[in-house]
Amino acid sequence: MVMHHCKIRAMHSTVVFPEVEQLTLKWDLIVKEILHGKFSEYSCNLKVLGLISVSKQSDICPCCLLYTLPNLERLDVWFCFFEEIFKCEGLDCKVEHVEAAGKLNYLTLTGMKDSSLVWEENSLPSRVFRNLTTLEVLKCDNLQTLVPSFLSFQNLSALEVSNCNGLVNLLAVSVAKSLVQLTRLKIKECKMMEKIVTHGRVDEMENMIIFNQLKYLELQRLPRLTSFCSGNYAVEFPSLQQVVVGQCGSMKIFSHGALRTPRLHKLQITEADEEGNWEGDLNTTIQKMFKEMVGFRGIENFTVSDFPHLKEAWHNQLLIGYFNNLKSLVVDDKCSSLKYMFTPSLALGLVQLQELEIKNCTVLEAIIVIEEERTDNTLFPNLTRLELKDLPKLFRFCNFPGNSIELPSLARLWIDNCPNMEKFISGSTDADMPASKENLHTDIQPFFDEKVFFLSFLFYFFTWNSFPF
After folding, report:
1. What pLDDT does residue 9 have?
2. Which residues in the chain show pLDDT less than 70?
3. Which stretches make up the Disease resistance protein At4g27190-like leucine-rich repeats domain (predicted)?
4. d(CA 182, CA 154)
C-alpha cells in the first residue's frame, strides 16, 4: 500500500498502516501520534515524508525524528525555519547526530521563513546537503542566500529554484564548481535574480567553471537577470543539449568570459519551442534575442521598473506584437519621462489585460492619447482593475474625439493623489492642463459623463487630494 500526500486529521487507535511509504502531515498531528506511541506503527517503511508547519515548541525534536526513519529518501518541508528541521534542540535529544539521516537524498523546501540557509562548516546540514541528489526550493520570498559558499554539492543531480523573490544571486562560484554531478538546473520566477553564479571569495585563483554533466538548463521569467555568470570566468558545458530562456528581458549576454557549449545547437523560448533560435553560439544568440526583445514573447505579468532599458522604446511599434497575452501591467517611477503611456495601437493590442496599475510617474499627463476619431470605442475589453496613484500632472485617463468609450469589464477603479485630474476623459487632443484652480471652483464639471461606460462597475475610490477643488 502506498499513501501519497495523505493528510490525516486524526488516527483511530485501531487503524494501522504498516506498508505506508508516503505521508504528509502537519507537525502538531505527528507530535500527537508520537506521544501516543502510534507513529512508529506506520512509519518504519516511510520513504517520503512531508512536514507542514514544524515547530520546536514541543517535546519532540523534528531532527531526531528523521533518524527513526531508516528508509526515508525524500523530505518535503513547508512553512517553517530551516534550523527547526536540521538542528537538535528538543527534550528527547539524547544523541548528537554527525551523519545525514538514513537514505535521505531528495529535499523540497516550500514557503520557508528563513532569510538565509546558513550554517557552520562540517555541521549536520552540510552533511545532509552533500548527500542530496535533488533539491527544490519553492516560494521562499524571505530567502536572500540559498547556501553558504563553503558548501559542496558533490552528489546533486537536479536543482530547481522558483518564486524566491529575495534572491539576487543563486550560487557562489565555489559552490558552482562543486556541482560535478548536476544534470538539470531550473530557475523560474525569481523577480530579483540578477546572476545565477556570482564571484565569492577573492582568493579564488582558478577562473574556470565546468558543468561536466549538465544537460538541461531552464531560465524562465527572471526579469532582472542580466547574465548567467558574473565576472570573466570561463564557463564550459561539455554535455549541455537543451537551454530554455524565456521572459528574461534584461539578459544581454550569457557569459562575459569564454563560453563553450559543443553539443548545444539551439536556444528555446519555451520547452515546447522545437525550432528555437540559434546564431552560431550561445552568447550571440542571447545578444540578438535581447536586441529583438524575444524574451517578452508571451509575457503575462509585466512591471516596467524591472526593465529600465525599455523606457526609450516604450512607444515603439515593436512592443505591440509582444504584449498580446499581457494580463497584468505595473508602470512606476522608472517611466518618469513619459507624458503618456499608450498609443491607440498599443492600447488596442492589450486585449487580455486584466489589471493596470500606474504610479509615481511625475510628468505623466494622460494614459492614452488618441489623435483621430475611431470607430472602435472599446478599450481594454478584459480590464477589471485600474489603479492610478501619485501622478501629480495627470490630467485625464484619455482624450477621445468620438462619441463614447467603453471599459466593459472594469469593476474596480482606484485614484489616489492625482491632484490635476479633473475629468476621466476629454474630447480634446492636446494635453493642456487646467488654467487655474480658482476657475474650477466656479465651473466644476462631472468627473464621469455620458461618454464613459462602465458595464461591470462595482467599486471606486478617490482620495480627497486627488482633485483640485
Report:
1. 45
2. 1-18, 89-102, 200-206, 311-320, 333-336, 372-376, 400-404, 427-469
3. 21-149, 152-271, 300-432
4. 9
Spatial contact of 44 and 68, defined as CB atoms under 8 Å apart: no
CA geometry: angle 282, 286, 290, nearest 5 deg: 175
Per-domain residue ranges for the chain? 155-297, 301-466
pLDDT in the model for residue 60: 83
> What integer pLDDT is reported at residue 110 of this predicted model?
96
pTM summary value? 0.81
Q: Is 28 helix (H, G, I), strand (E, B) or coil?
A: helix
Question: CA 411 to CA 321: how far, in whole Å?
Answer: 27
DSSP state of 235: E
In one letter, which amino acid is 279? Answer: E
Question: What digits encode the pLDDT tens for the residues 365-395?
Answer: 999 887 766 656 788 999 999 999 999 999 8
Sign of the alpha-carbon dihedral angle for 302, 308, 313, 314: positive
Alpha carbons 448 and 451: distance in angstroms, whole number = 8
Give ∠ CA 307-313-316 in degrees, rounded to 5. Answer: 135
User: How far apart, in whole angstroms, are the C-alpha atoms of residue 191 and residue 301?
Assistant: 11
Looking at residue 444, what is its pLDDT? Answer: 41
Q: What is the four-CA torsion angle of 293, 299, 305, 310, rounded to 10 degrees?
A: 20
Lookup: cell for 211 = 558543468
Q: How high is the pLDDT of residue 375?
A: 53
Q: Which of 356, 60, 330 is nearest to 25 (CA)?
A: 60
User: How far apart are the C-alpha atoms of 396 and 367, rounded to whole Å?
Assistant: 7
Q: How would you classify the pairing of strands 405-406 and 452-453?
A: parallel
Confidence (pLDDT) at 195: 96
Identify which of 70, 51, 71 has the alpha carbon closest to the alpha carbon of residue 61: 51
Distance CA 354, CA 369 (A): 20
Q: What cell was used for 442?
A: 466656479
Segment 207-220, tens digit of pLDDT: 899 999 999 999 99
- Look at the block and give the residue holding cell 562543486: 178
Which residue from 255, 253, 185, 259 is spatially nearest to 220, judged by alpha carbons?
A: 185
CA dist 221 and 188 (Å) reads 6
